[in-house]
Sequence to fold (298 residues):
Amino acid sequence: MQLSLIRGKETHAVRNLLRLMMQLAIAGLLFICLAQTGARYLFGRTVRREVEALLAGLHAQTPATITEKEIAALPAPVQRWLHRAGVVDRQDPLAARICQRGSLRTGAQRPWLPFSAVEYYTTQRPGLVWHAQWPLAPLLLAEARDRYFRGRGHMLVKALSLFTMTDARGPEMDQGALVRYLNGIMWVPHAAITPYITWQAVDEHTARATIHYGAVTAAALFTFDAEGDCARMEAQRYRYEGNRFVLRRWSTVAEAHEEFQGIRIPVRGQAVWHLEEGEFPYVQIEVREIQYHVTAPC
Fold:
């Protein structure tokens, strides 16, 4: 009987310990969730201010209309694309908001993670702000902001919106962000005729775009299909590997096209790094919605 009593007390103590551990775990999870909620608010507020700075003054500008005369000197495949996209005889929107979803991964052996994002993109004053979120674990998120503003690139990634995973800036980021901006003309083709971008014919389906902005120059090869849609973009872009930046071949491929507000754009595709060990697709993306003529963050 005494042995049974001892065992009963031990069982009761173990149950109490387990109950306490469970309560502490729940309390810890609640604390992390509350901390993440507050951090997300602050992160979002910072991004909103950056978007406001990007769009500042656009409401006072009068958009110009893109005419046949303006595109007449462009290479033939670029002209066909702009007609196919539907931007001729339309106003330059000055800015666009692009709502995206898709999946990403950080390594060839890493799992694909679903993400959602909103990107703001300007035409006459090259710039963009991309804000994305994806899950790290149930209830826990990573948050990223990629920015190109006043000729400077900056990528910031935080776990739980609190702990910095990536904070990259400098000359290589400036070049990489400018290449990314150049790629964005697929979604905002009005930007293809800005004075910062020059075009050179390569063949009947390909043209080279070179963008000069600030102290940085970047170039990319654009390929257009038989119908005139923009099908592929390829450029040299800096990639962070280990503890240094390396210039690598980078491409984006369009897999489907649709119209938004009368403008035909790629709505599904992927981004690929071309590495020594082979191709590394790392982003699969879909455009859910695009709004042109944006003058303020939503």
The chain has one domain: 30-292. The chain has four helices and 13 strands. The first strand starts at residue 95 and ends at 104. The two ends are 72 Å apart (CA to CA).
